[in-house]
């Protein structure tokens, strides 16, 4: 083990290094469930609907089924890996043990893109709602974004206990709003007349009763990135491993209960929202506030502003929880030296990675402002929001492929690692995740509207890889993730069996 550590050029940190980077244990199974569901739930309020413009209702339905299958394969794999490797590094930690330093870093970099850009997408839609409520001009939107970041980064810095309590409350409120919408919408549903109101090849079909697949099967595949928005970020739960009271018991339960909740909610919103009179798939395909439009169709536009306040709860739930994940993801890579080490310093009293959250939020906001200036203040939600969404999804798909590969390699090369939970889908589930994620990536690149954003993410990858090659790999620290990976590599080399769980 010592020879490998020397070959990798690790720097040994004293106790003071980790004392400045300690976290506080608090989360139980329902806190974890709320963290996962809360991170995703905004995707049931805004964002998913843009896929209706690409595939029509039938295309979006098929895309949602495929993406649900992908996420089941992914989440069951993560449910196995997270209690076996209970570190804050999550995806980076899995890949580091399975594929070495470069595999760990590239996987962490992909996940970093997802967690920096996903809050940007959500706060963009929050700004869209607030613009409608207060009737502010489009040029005022950056103010809403800045206020949102300051408020919720600040809330996450205050402390993990308050953060999780707020997460549980806003997640339950967000789900309650959706349940109220479902119950209210069911009596007014006219699926054929409204959800099927897109003509073959595009355009509004008056009276509805159009084709199930107005853009053919290709349209369904083009809608895949938007269907991802109904589930994206459920995989963030392992980032809370070192703040979980019992990650080996609670992490699998939190992930799987969360996924079940999201599947039910996704198909309910997909069926009901476009099926309402005065709404329809065609109009929702370019809407920044689809749930608000649904509420307005049911209750009338007279109380639209009140309903907008209600609808914004789901966006707040996701924004708050993904700011949490963003900070922990940057923290873990920084603590191990892959990112600049200063980013992993935690608050003296509150034990939260405040620098990681502030820097991550600043990068996300900067990208939003570049798009806002470059595309113009009057660019529609489908352009600015869709571009940000596709950038986040691109990073996520790369991360999912890497995590599924990590799962396969851990099963094959590290079969003796203690696994408190085993995925019933096994390697075939991970393979399904890889295939569907790869298809989603291919269709993202085929869409000229969002290709520039995806190219921007590729540049982000190139800069990150250059930094690691020139600087980061020479400054690695023996963090818990690195200790675990080195120990497993040495045991695999010598054929020794694991001696038990590694302490965090």
UniProtKB/TrEMBL annotation:
Residues 45-451 form the Amino acid permease/ SLC12A domain. Its main location: membrane. It comes from the Bacteria. One of its GO terms (biological process) is transmembrane transport. The keyword Disulfide bond does not apply. The chain crosses the membrane at residues 26-45, 57-79, 115-134, 140-159, 166-186, 212-234, 255-276, 296-325, 354-377, 383-410, 422-443, 449-470. It holds the Pfam family AA_permease. It is a multi-pass membrane protein. Keywords: Membrane, Transmembrane, Transmembrane helix. It is found in: Membrane. This is Amino acid permease. It comes from Aurantimonas aggregata.
